[in-house]
Task: structure prediction
Amino acid sequence: MSTPTLTMQKTREILRLHFDLKLTKRQIARCVKVSRSTVVKYLEKAEQAALTWPLPSDLDDIRLERLPFGKESVARDSVRPLPAMDELHRELRKKGVTLQLLWQEYKEQYPDGYQYTQFCEHYRRWVESVEVSMRQIHRAGEKSFIDFAGKTIPIINPLTTEVNEAQIFISVLGASN
Result:
């Protein structure tokens, strides 16, 4: 079982907090938002690689990753395919489609692909890079924007216990900005 690969920023932060600030492993885990066992593994690997703080200035992220964890961690991540993010984004607009469902389809196609958390992280990063804007100019109160809120909800008549489905819609008066 291989050690999970953290971002190099978190790896550097673990080393800094350990060597520079002399924090406990629990404190480091809380600061970096990883498990204590992960901090322990990273510090053991750093010790095996004879890393000291501050890190040498010529030690870039790729070399840092290769030092403690060997070349396989870099190579394994570089061959993992990702689906086209724009297609994922389009699929997510469809009713009933979730990122979990899309990930399951992805794993069927690529069994050695990313696990759910990393899959979501890649998608989140992609979404942040997409520039979204739809500038509309109109006078306040001149237009009303109406849309359905999604699925129907059941309304139960307390006297007859008859169930009717109700649509929910939202209306907003437009204003600048």
The radius of gyration is 25 Å. The chain has three domains: 8-78, 85-129, 135-177. Residues 135-177 form one domain. Confidence is low (pLDDT under 50) at residues 70-78.
